[in-house]
Structures are given as structure tokens and as C-alpha cells.
Amino acid sequence: MKAYWDAYDRTLTRIIEEKPQSMDDLKKILDEFEPPSSGDAFFPGGADETLADALHQAGWSISYREGNYVWVGVSRAGEKVSHIEGDLYRGDVTLPTS
User: Fold this and answer.
1) Which of 51, 45, 47, 49 is nearest to 29 (CA)?
2) Closest by alpha carbon to 12, among 66, 48, 40?
3) Alpha-carbon gap, residue 59 to 77, rounded angstroms
4) Per residue in 33-77, pLDDT tens?
5) Are 74 and 98 in contact (CB under 8 A)?
6) Contact (CB, 8 A) for 72 and 83
7) What is the DSSP annotation of the chain?
């Protein structure tokens, strides 16, 4: 179990240090930890430090839509990423479609 959490922490540290500003660059980092689930990329929760925290430290703004499990991040370059229960999608898919 320690190896899992060490890899989790390393992934968040990479995001903070490398400061990805696009979904493609973020996906490259996340895919090394765990392959996508139903979204474009995946990163699980369950720790004190979260993906939203790491992205915020990397310069992204985070808008929480529902608790801490549905949010939209916007990079300094204007790239939008939606996080829904661990799955990440390009753009803001949390907006109503009607």
C-alpha cells in the first residue's frame, strides 16, 4: 500500500513542479499513475492532498461545482478541465446542455 501512496504523491509533485497548462500535458502525467476510466484521464481522490490542490499550486484556478468531487480547472493558458469523481474531461462538461 505504501508504494501506491508514494506513487500518488509523486504524481502530485510532478504536477506542481512541471506546471502542465494543457489537458494533453496533464494527461501524460496522470496516465503514468493510472489509465483513464470513463473520462479522458483519471486520478482518484482519498488523500489529504488532491489533484485540485496540485493544479492550483501549478497556476490553475479551480471552481468547485459540487462538493470537492466535481470541479472545473482553468489553466493560465485558458485550457479547461472538468473533474467528476476522479474522471477528467476536456472542457467544462459540468454546464447544463439545455
Assistant:
1) 51
2) 48
3) 10
4) 999 989 999 999 888 899 999 999 999 999 999 888 999 999 999
5) no
6) yes
7) -HHHHHHHHHHHHHHHHH---SHHHHHHHHHHHS--SSSSEE----SSS-HHHHHHHTT-EEEEEETTTEEEEE-TT--EEEEETTEEEES-TTS---
Q: Which residues have a Cβ under 8 Å from the Cβ of 30 and sit 6 or more positions away?
A: 11, 41, 42, 43, 88
Residue type, 15: I
Give residues with Cβ within 8 angstroms of 69, minimum separation 6: 45, 83, 84, 85, 86
For cell 485550457, the residue is 79
**Closest by Cα among 35, 1, 3, 30 to 14:** 30
